[in-house]
TrEMBL record:
NCBIfam families: PRK01827.1-2 (NF002496), thym_sym (TIGR03284). It comes from Peribacillus deserti. This is Thymidylate synthase. GO terms for molecular function: thymidylate synthase activity. Residues 7-318 form the Thymidylate synthase/dCMP hydroxymethylase domain. The keyword Heme does not apply. It is an enzyme of class 2 (transferase). DUMP binds at residues 25, 180-181, 220-223, 231, 261-263. The lineage of its organism: Bacteria, Bacillati, Bacillota, Bacilli, Bacillales.
Length: 318
C-alpha cells in the first residue's frame, strides 16, 4: 500500500473510531476530531487518491484560478469546473432580484426531495448558462468576494497598497531559501465578511533544504471525505509548480488540520472507500518549457498512470 494513501485512510479510520458528534454550520452534522497531521513524500508519487477516482482536472483548474488571483466562477465554468457553484448560486437566490422558485436551504432539500432536486438542477443550469453568457450578470453574481485568489495575489494593506504574497514568496525562495518567513496567508480577518466562504485552508509555509522544496498547510476545517483529497492534491501540485520554477525538487507536503470531520451523510461512502485496496500512485508531468508558475495553463499539467477505483458520490454540505 502506498504510504501516502495509507496516512489518509488512517485518518478516516481514526475519525470513525474516535471522533465525536458535533453540529455544524450546514445543519448536516459531523463526526469530528481536532488536530491531525498527514505527511506525503512527493518523490514517491503524486498523492492523488486511488481508492476512489479524484477528478484531477478540477483540482488543477481550481489551483490555476487561485494562482491567477481570480475570484469569479466564470473562469471555472469555462473549464467545466463546478466545485464553487453552490456558493455563488446561494448569493443569487438570496438576492433581491431573484424571482425564481423558492430555493431556500437547497442543499439539504435536494438530498431528501427528488422533485425539488430536479427543480434545483434546472435552476442551477440556468444560473450557470447565464454566468457564461452574460458578462454583467457574471460580474455581479459569479463573484465570490475576497476569497483565496484575492488574498494570495492582491492582499490589501492598511495603507491601501496591494501585496502579491505568492509572487513575493516565490522570489524569496529563489533569493533567500533559508528564510523562515516563506508564508502565504488566506486568513484576512478584515475581509472575512466579504467572502462567500471563509478560507478553510488558511495559510501555508515553504521550507527549502538539500535542493528540495517542502510545503506545510494549516487547514482550520476539513471535509475529510470530499474536500481533503482535493486539498492534498492541490497543494502537492502547487509545491511541484513552485519547485519547478525555482529549480528545486518537490520534497514533502505536510497537511495539518484543525477540525477534521466526516459528515454524517458520508459515513457509508467512507466505509466503502476503506474496504478498497489502494493502487500505485500516478506521476505528475509538467511542461518543462513553461518557466513561471503564473504562465501555466491546463494543457501544461498532466497526470499519467492513474488507475483508480471508481468514484464514490456524496452530497456537498453548503
Amino acid at each position: 500500500m502506498s504510504e501516502s494513501e495509507k496516512v489518509y485512510l488512517d485518518l478516516c479510520q481514526y475519525i470513525l473510531q474516535n471522533g465525536v458528534k458535533k453540529e455544524d454550520r450546514t445543519g448536516t452534522g459531523t463526526i469530528s476530531t481536532f488536530g491531525a497531521q498527514m505527511r506525503f513524500d512527493l518523490e514517491k508519487g503524486f498523492p492523488l487518491l486511488t481508492t476512489k477516482k479524484i477528478p484531477f482536472r478540477l483540482i488543477a483548474s481550481e489551483l490555476l484560478w487561485f494562482i491567477k488571483g481570480d475570484t469569479n466562477i466564470r473562469y471555472l465554468l469555462k473549464h467545466n469546473n463546478n466545485i464553487w457553484n453552490e456558493w455563488a448560486f446561494k448569493a443569487w437566490i438570496e438576492s433581491d432580484v431573484y424571482t425564481g422558485p423558492d430555493m431556500t436551504n437547497f442543499g439539504l432539500r435536494a438530498q431528501n426531495d427528488q422533485e425539488f432536486h430536479l427543480l434545483y438542477q434546472e435552476q442551477m443550469e440556468l444560473f450557470k448558462k447565464r454566468i457564461l453568457d452574460d458578462a454583467d450578470f457574471a460580474a455581479q453574481f459569479g463573484e465570490l468576494g475576497n476569497v483565496y485568489g484575492k488574498q494570495w495575489r492582491d492582499w490589501t494593506a492598511s495603507n491601501g497598497q496591494s501585496i502579491d504574497q505568492l509572487k513575493e514568496v516565490i522570489e524569496t525562495i529563489k533569493t533567500n531559501p533559508s528564510s523562515r518567513r516563506l508564508i502565504v496567508s488566506a486568513w484576512n480577518p478584515e475581509d472575512l465578511p466579504n467572502m462567500a466562504l471563509p478560507p478553510c485552508h488558511t495559510m501555508f509555509q515553504f521550507y527549502v533544504t538539500e535542493g528540495r522544496l517542502s510545503c506545510q498547510l494549516y487547514q482550520r476545517s476539513g471535509d475529510v471525505f470530499l474536500g481533503i483529497p482535493f486539498n492534498i492534491a492541490s497543494y502537492a501540485l502547487l509545491t511541484h509548480l513552485i519547485a519547478h520554477e525555482c529549480g528545486l525538487k518537490a520534497g514533502e507536503f505536510i497537511h495539518t488540520l484543525g477540525d477534521a470531520h466526516i459528515y454524517l451523510n458520508h459515513l457509508e461512502q467512507v466505509e466503502e472507500q476503506l474496504n478498497r485496496t489502494p493502487k500505485a500512485l500516478p506521476e505528475l508531468l509538467l511542461n518543462k518549457n513553461v518557466t513561471s508558475v503564473f504562465d501555466f495553463e491546463m494543457e501544461d499539467i498532466n497526470i499519467e498512470n492513474y488507475l483508480p477505483h471508481p468514484a464514490i458520490k456524496a452530497p456537498v454540505a453548503v
